[in-house]
TrEMBL record:
Annotated organism of origin: Astyanax mexicanus (Blind cave fish)
GO cellular component, one term: apical plasma membrane
Keyword Glycoprotein appears in the UniProt entry: yes
Subcellular location: Cell membrane
Protein's UniProt name: Solute carrier family 12 member 10, tandem duplicate 1
One Gene Ontology biological process: chloride ion homeostasis
Entry-linked InterPro entries: AA-permease/SLC12A_dom, AA_permease_N, SLC12_C, SLC12A3, SLC12A_fam
Chain segments annotated as transmembrane: 127-155, 167-192, 213-237, 257-274, 286-306, 338-360, 372-393, 451-473, 505-524, 563-579
Highest rank taxon of the organism: Eukaryota
Length: 741
């Protein structure tokens, strides 16, 4: 404003009101209007100087003649604006001695007043967002880890280490992790490609490969989850039976006690599942905390000096001689081979789909499933490796448990094994193979090594019950989704949901009965290979689904998870099938027989569903590529096939003509049933149902296209239809005779 005002003409300056001003050393000068009329300021003329405005001089102890009104506070200007008079105190840099300087806030200062709360809110929202994502991942992580940590970890891992040795045990672990990790990448890609509804592996495979492959795997996977519940329940029952034997409280015998305890346990788990997901989630958190304490208790126990009673049972803390002795395999019994050990161990790695099976209950499955599953695989793999190597470095394979087998200091008899170097002689029970303790003979090695044995028992209970509960919840969810799709008859009864969470109570009862039937087997080493077979089959189809969706380049295949490859998915599928036959070939044949039967049924029935599967995309790619390749091939008499355009109108109105042409096309040549729709009769379009006419042709076993065409008249419509490449055109004359033209 100052620059503009300084360039005004002097005549304009003369027109401003004349006045006086006062200045005081005690305070900055202040202007105020006197008795002059305010209207004269507003209506001032450029050539007038008659208006006078008296401006009095004010000192700090002197008040103006009267209160300055709002109207009088306006700044006088030749433009007669309504702006208020600026406060000079905001602009004065010089102040009197002893007075604080008053400064007007800058624009940056005013802006920060609003930016600070906004920044705080953004930071708060970011913290809440990442905390929510972390919470969802942790829920999925806990569920997967609990399902992976099963009864095999506590009851069979040390025994497998004694049979296969530390080196081959690590090979078994890495082979299992290889299969599950590749499958996890495929699951992550499928789950981030779109919305993942309830149904887990069945939903992923069926929406990717179609109902033909999704239906069979839905049945097999539901059955495998029910077997998983039976496996972990039997492991829990074995632990309770061992406790009963220890305290001389056997009910019937070793086998029937497992059956009785297993039946009671699975019934209790069913009641917890029927209570709803809220109770089941709270129970899982409790089990997870117990397992954390159990692991800490075990690793602390490995460094506590062993007592003579523990040394008699084969535990000597960390010893290099014991570690070297247990590096290499020592196969014993009918089950003493590599693939049998792999078949028994593999069920301890099958829990990677625990979160995917209940994906309908997750708020953000696209984020929780990839990150939570990968973190769970890493954490459980480290626990398996550490427990196997620590047990192999601390515990002998054979021990008698007899304190009298200790050697005196000056003993010089025949004894040259590792136990003799440690002051014990277990040669007698080793030769007779009657040693009751050691990794090769006892399944309670982790209880022996731990600082407090009952905590390991609590860990066995937590691991077995949590896995059994997760499988018992997953199986009905998958089967419910299969029932709702109406792919197979007579199973819709089990898909009915109850309550606000749509819980499949009937499916719970069915899975409970299946699990109970296998619990009656009461042998862990018999059930484990069966579960390995069914889950390997499921993993093979999941990996093949990812490979097939990638290889067809479907427009709908755009997963946000980029850390996968179609070739790794194919490798995972092939290795899963190979392992199925290497483990239990007869079970693999039965599994594939069931899948082929269910696949044939769905292919024959052709359910009326359209999920945009990769099979459809592959069919389109094949048809397009073959059509393009045929375009460049010249016709030859040996490959001649008639291409017929049949002017039938609606095919069901001229069945004789359709049958006549079909008699020499033989469903191996092109046949098009043309139907010309007159524009003068628009109602004819709505009356013609294309789907019904195509269905009529299929029921008549005539392979033909139905092509309706809109034309002004019959001649115009026929002319356009004849542009299709045809060798023969059959027309029906008014008299009903056929003519070849």
């Amino acid at each position: 404003m100052g620059h503009r005002f300084s360039r005004r003409r002097q005549s304009d300056l003369d027109t401003l009101p004349q006045g006086r001003f006062s200045f005081s050393e005690e305070a900055p000068p202040r202007y105020y209007l006197g008795q002059g009329d305010q209207d004269t300021v507003r209506n001032v003329q450029p050539s007038s100087s008659s208006s006078e405005v008296s401006i009095g001089m004010e000192t700090p102890g002197q008040q103006p003649d009267r209160r300055v009104t709002r109207q009088e506070g306006r700044r006088p200007s030749i433009y007669s604006t309504m702006d208020a008079v600026p406060n000079l105190e905001f602009y004065a840099n010089a102040t009197a001695t002893g007075r604080l300087r008053r400064s007007r806030p800058s624009l940056e200062t005013l802006r920060k007043v609003f930016e600070v709360p906004l920044c705080f809110r953004q930071c708060l929202y970011s913290i809440l967002f990442y905390f929510t994502i972390f919470f969802l991942i942790m829920i999925h992580l806990v569920r997967c880890m609990l399902n992976i940590w099963g009864v095999i970890l506590f009851l069979r891992l040390s025994w497998i280490t004694s049979q296969a040795g530390i080196i081959l045990t690590w090979v078994i672990i890495f082979m299992s992790v290889l299969v599950t990790s590749v499958t996890c990448l495929s699951v992550s890609a499928i789950s981030t490609n779109g919305k993942v509804s309830s149904g887990g592996a069945y939903f992923m495979i069926s929406r990717t490969l179609g109902p033909e492959m999704g239906g069979p795997i839905g049945v097999v996977f539901s059955f495998a989850n029910a077997l998983g519940c039976a496996l972990n329940t039997v492991g829990f029952a074995e632990t309770v039976r061992d406790l009963l034997i220890e305290y001389n409280s056997v009910m019937v015998d070793s086998i029937n006690d497992v059956r009785i305890i297993g039946t009671i346990t699975v019934t209790s788990l069913l009641l917890i599942s029927l209570a709803g997901m809220e109770w089941e989630s709270k129970t899982q958190i409790l089990f997870f905390l117990v397992l954390m304490v159990t692991f800490a208790n075990y690793f602390v126990g490995t460094v506590i000096p062993a007592t003579p009673e523990e040394q008699a049972m084969g535990f000597f803390n960390y010893r290099a001689d014991i570690f070297v002795e247990n590096l290499f395999p020592d196969w014993r019994g009918a089950e003493g081979n590599f693939f049998q050990m792999f078949a028994i161990f593999f069920p301890s790695a099958i829990g990677i789909l625990a979160g995917a099976n209940i994906s309908g209950d997750l708020r953000d499955p696209e984020t929780a499933i990839p990150k939570g599953t990968l973190m769970a695989i890493f954490g459980t793999t480290m626990s398996y490796l550490l427990i196997s190597v620590t047990a192999g470095a601390c515990v002998l394979r054979d021990a008698s448990g007899n304190l009298n087998d200790s050697l005196p200091l000056n003993y010089s008899g025949p004894c040259d094994d590792v136990a003799c170097k440690l002051g014990w002689n277990f040669t007698k029970c080793e030769q007779s193979q009657t040693c009751p303790f050691g990794m090769s003979n006892s399944f309670q090695v982790l209880s022996l090594v731990s600082a407090f044995g009952p905590l390991i028992t609590a860990g066995v209970f937590a691991a077995s019950l949590s896995s059994a509960l997760a499988f018992l919840v997953s199986a009905p969810k998958v089967f419910q989704c299969l029932c709702k799709d109406n792919i197979y008859p007579y199973i819709g009864f089990f898909g009915k949901g109850y309550g606000k969470n749509n819980e499949p109570l009937r499916a719970y009862i069915l899975c409970y009965l299946i699990a109970l039937a296998f619990i009656l087997i009461a042998q862990l080493n018999v059930i484990a290979p069966l579960i390995s077979n069914f889950f390997l089959c499921s993993y093979a189809l999941i990996n093949f689904s990812c490979f097939h969706a990638s290889i067809t380049n479907s427009p709908g295949w755009r997963p946000s998870f980029k850390y996968y490859s179609k070739w790794t998915a194919l490798f995972g599928s092939v290795i899963s099938v190979v392992l199925m036959f290497l483990l239990t070939w007869w079970a693999a044949l039965i599994t594939f027989g069931i899948i082929i039967f269910l696949f044939g049924y769905v292919t024959y029935k052709k359910p009326e569903v359209n999920w945009g599967s990769s099979v459809q995309a592959g069919t389109y790619n094949m048809a397009l590529s073959y059509s393009v390749s045929l375009a460049g091939v010249e016709d030859h008499v040996k490959n001649f096939r008639p291409q017929c355009l049949v002017l039938t109108g609606p095919p069901n109105l001229r069945p004789a003509l359709v049958d006549f042409v079909g008699s020499f096309t033989k469903n191996v040549s092109l046949m098009i049933c043309g139907d010309i729709l007159m524009v003068s009769r628009p109602s004819g379009i709505s009356q013609r149902n294309t789907d019904k006419l195509v269905k009529w042709l299929n029921c008549r076993k005539v392979r033909s296209f139905y092509t309706p065409f809109k034309g002004d008249n019959l001649r115009e419509g026929a002319r356009h239809l004849m542009q299709v490449t045809c060798n023969l055109i059959f027309t029906l004359e008014n008299k009903g005779a056929s003519k070849v033209s």
